[in-house]
Structures are given as structure tokens and as C-alpha cells.
Amino acid sequence: MPTHLVLLCAGATASFRAARFPDPAEPLDEGGRAAVRRFVPGGRRFDRCLIAPGMAARDTAALLSLAGEDEPLLRDIDAGDWTGAGLDEVDGAALAAWLAAPETGAPGGESMAAVAGRVGACLDGLVAGSVLAVTHVAVIRAAIAHALGIPVAATLGIDVTPLMRVTLSRHRRWRLQELRRA
């Protein structure tokens, strides 16, 4: 039996709109809450629902009346010293180094390779069936990289937005089925 995984990107936060580094404690902003309320998730039924531990993912799931399991492996990337900061609020030299190699991660934070490792472990540990996961941009990029067997840095060119749905399937190996904007 195959595994079908739908990754739903959490709704928008003020930091997302201002291009700030993610903060797991930040809730959805009013616009994010309104968009989630208007969102129609589709008619598919799921055997399981996984919810990342960040506040935006939890808020999204709650507004969609989704009951699910907390899945720490699907947590957002740890932005370390830059958590919640805007690009204009971090050291210029450190920012330039990060912009040259964003896959390395922010100072004191988690690399994209580390995110890809934990997300890949989560995906490969899923049992057959249909799964919905409410999570974050970096996690969705890591899941796509894992499914396609490409470096996670290659996914930086994919514009993942709030409430975007990514569908992956596994029958012997992972495949990307669909990218759908809200």
C-alpha cells in the first residue's frame, strides 16, 4: 500500500510578511487567521494528521479543526541568534556570509542539512496510508529535497507560501505529485 503525504504550510505570521527569520512562538497574524478561515483543504480523508510544534502550525490546525499528533521532527528551522530578526537587524558581514550559503544556517541555528535529515527520517518512518502534515516553509523544502533526492539548497528557488499544499507519494520511493497554492 502506498503512502500519500500532504504537507500544508502554516498560515502567515507578521514575521513571514516582513521577511523576518522564523520564531516558533509566533502566532498567526490577523491576515493569516483570516486566510486560514477562508481556506478549503479539499475533500481527501486522512488516516493521520501530524502537526509541527510551532505556534503558527498549531493555530492553522486549530482553525481548520484538525486534531492531530504533535510531530517534533516537522518543527521549523531553528534560526538561532537571528530568531525573529529582520535582515536589517543582523550583522552585515554575518548576513553576507549567510546569503552566500544560506544552507549553512544562521549563527547558533540549524543548518538546512540538519532540517533535511530530521524531515527525511520522519518521512521514511511513515507507515502506508494517507497523512496530512501542517508544518513550515523550511520543512516543506526539505521534504521536497528528500523526495527528489536533491540538495536541500536547490529548493531555495521554490516559492513556498502560507497554505501551500505539497503532495508526496511513496511506493518503493518518494515522488513529488503536486505543488498547489492556496
From TrEMBL:
Source organism, top-level taxon: Bacteria
Pfam families found in the cross-reference section: His_Phos_1
Name of the protein described by the UniProt record: Histidine phosphatase family protein
